[in-house]
TrEMBL record:
Its EC number is 1.2.4.1. PANTHER family: PYRUVATE DEHYDROGENASE E1 COMPONENT BETA SUBUNIT, PYRUVATE DEHYDROGENASE E1 COMPONENT SUBUNIT BETA. Gene3D superfamilies: 3.40.50.920, 3.40.50.970. The pyruvate dehydrogenase complex catalyzes the overall conversion of pyruvate to acetyl-CoA and CO(2). It contains multiple copies of three enzymatic components: pyruvate dehydrogenase (E1), dihydrolipoamide acetyltransferase (E2) and lipoamide dehydrogenase (E3). Residues 82-257 form the Transketolase-like pyrimidine-binding domain. SUPFAM superfamilies: Thiamin diphosphate-binding fold (THDP-binding) (SSF52518), TK C-terminal domain-like (SSF52922). It is an enzyme of class 1 (oxidoreductase). It holds the Pfam family Transketolase_C. It comes from Quercus rubra (Northern red oak). It is found in: Plastid, Chloroplast. This is pyruvate dehydrogenase (acetyl-transferring). It catalyses: N(6)-[(R)-lipoyl]-L-lysyl-[protein] + pyruvate + H(+) = N(6)-[(R)-S(8)-acetyldihydrolipoyl]-L-lysyl-[protein] + CO2.
């Protein structure tokens, strides 16, 4: 059994644990990496293991995560464990270190650290000019961010909730998406607009909106949705480096999802889907939180003899039709699972794209499972009725494969 001792504790090289041989080093003598929230684990055989202190373990009850086979196997994997919001912050911090033109603006992003702590500690490190707290005026600071992008900066605009960015819809559509075109290419708009969205846990209608369909029709805008700590960091870095305006959708119920990610630098493509589970019988296309509902349903489907192929499309605009098309040509059946609303949603656009490009490969009509076209109720039971559940996914696959 391991005994946890404070960060400034060191143990002599004795094989047997002896508290009298426990020596304390001055905190001033520790390296920077040791001082930065760390501790030592002193094992019963007297060996000392340096550990980095992470945030307390939080579990998102709203998603079905794949349990590790054993703690030992997880610990042996290379890399480091991060919660999704920490992965976003790590990607943002790496880009701010790399490029001095990267800056952040939004409500409470500075010394408060953001509504979900994605920007925690950045104001102290980079100062108030690069991490700018703004008034509660989405149209104003979004417009300011677009202007900053026109002059050569790379701003990240955080909406405390994506629903609030509807107040800046004019700036996003008429300025952010159009200025590169209307200026004849004289201006580039390398801006990232990001924040929490999706159906939460009894947050009420105004805080549980699915806004992907609102923004997908704006010309000149790219849209991506993260679903794991790995792709959250990679997509954040890619969005910041892009010369195009990018909207990064984060789900409010995935911030506390934990995953081990590589220590070395990596960047995800903004236009590529992710093959989550190869299969033969049906292609299931999904993104964001619904990825976990689909994977939960996949366990049941496998037990019933089905072999679903699961793809996290990630890029909501444009679609990765190469990956999607290859899957359709293999399985000949498509199920789309989304949290967006049914009318005019991502699923409707995806259905149209697949029908237009791969209709000859389909052996059955495309089925699209979407949220109900109603404002999200506050009552928990009614809220669940508006969002696709794993049992519905199982039933839809059985219907498709008949």
């Amino acid at each position: 059994m391991a005994t946890i001792v404070g960060a400034a504790t060191a143990l002599s090289a004795s094989k047997s644990f002896n508290s009298r041989k426990l020596h304390l080093r001055s905190r001033r003598s520790l390296s920077v990496s040791e001082r930065k929230g760390s501790f030592l684990v002193v094992r019963s055989d007297g060996s000392v293991v340096h550990k980095a202190h992470r945030a307390q373990k939080l579990i998102a009850n709203a998603v079905a995560t794949k349990a590790d086979s054993s703690a030992a196997s997880t610990a042996s994997k290379p890399g480091h464990e991060l919660l999704l919001f920490e992965a976003l912050r790590e990607g943002l911090e790496e880009e701010m270190d790399r490029d001095p033109t990267v800056c952040v603006m939004g409500e409470d992003v500075g010394h408060y650290g953001g509504s979900y702590k994605v920007t925690k500690g950045l104001a102290t490190k980079y100062g108030d000019l690069r991490v700018l707290d703004t008034p509660i005026a989405e149209n104003s600071f979004t417009g300011m961010g677009i202007g900053a992008a026109m002059t050569g900066l790379r701003p990240i605009v955080e909406g405390m909730n994506m629903g609030f960015l509807l107040l800046a819809f004019n700036q996003i559509s008429n300025n952010c998406g159009m200025l590169h075109y209307t200026s004849g290419g004289q201006f580039k708009i390398p801006i990232v607009i990001r924040g929490p969205g999706g159906v939460g846990r009894q947050l009420g209608a105004e805080h549980s909106q699915r806004l992907e369909s609102y923004f997908q029709s704006i010309p000149g805008i790219q849209m991506v949705a993260c679903s794991t700590p790995y792709n959250a960091k990679g997509l954040m870095k890619a969005a910041i480096r892009s010369e195009n305006p990018v909207i990064l959708f984060e789900h409010v119920l995935l911030y506390n999802l934990k995953e081990r990610i590589p220590d070395e630098e990596y960047v995800c493509s903004l236009e590529e889907a992710e093959m989550v589970r190869p299969g033969e019988h049906v292609t299931i296309l999904t993104y964001s939180r619904m990825r976990y509902h689909v994977m939960q349903a996949a366990k049941t489907l496998v037990n019933k003899g089905y072999d679903p192929e699961v793809i996290d499309i990630r890029s909501l605009k444009p679609f990765d039709l190469h990956t999607i098309g290859n899957s359709v040509k293999k399985t000949h059946r498509v199920l789309i699972v989304e949290e967006c609303m049914r009318t005019g949603g991502i699923g409707a656009s995806l259905t149209a794209a697949i029908t237009e490009n791969f209709n000859d490969y389909l052996d059955a009509p495309i089925i699209c499972l979407s949220s109900q076209d109603v404002p999200t109720p506050y009552a928990g039971t009614l809220e669940e009725w508006t969002v696709v559940q794993p049992a519905q996914i199982v039933t839809a696959v059985e219907q498709l494969c008949q």
